[in-house]
Design a protein that fits this description.
Strand order of the largest sheet: 2-3-4-9
Radius of gyration: 13 Å
Order of helices and strands: EEEEEEEEEEE
Number of helices: 0
Number of domains: 1
CATH superfamily: Rieske [2Fe-2S] iron-sulphur domain
Number of strands: 11
Strand content: over 45%
Largest sheet: 4 strands, antiparallel
Shape: globular
CATH class: Mainly Beta
Structural class: mainly beta
Helix content: under 10%
Length: 105
Amino acid sequence: MIGQYLRLCGEKELAEGQMREFHLNGKDIILLKVQGKFYALDNLCTHDGGDLSGGDIIDGEIECPRHGARFNIQTGAATRFPAVVGIGTYDVKIENGEIYLALPE
């Protein structure tokens, strides 16, 4: 269930293929822009707890820079070993050129 939307940044502040880190309500989240769409994910590899923010975006997946685990940017599903558990994803909306992230209640 969605609790509240928090403003992250302006739409133009994130270029295609870039990612940006945010720390919100005790969670580390990354915002990605891929093919003109914005995605928000937990910045946490479920394999060993490392940050995903230094990873590459490859074919709709983010790759952990430490051991190569991959996660689907739309669903958060683990798609490549050594990760077997997915990561959290968050609803993102754009209003008047500003990006907002939905935090669960």
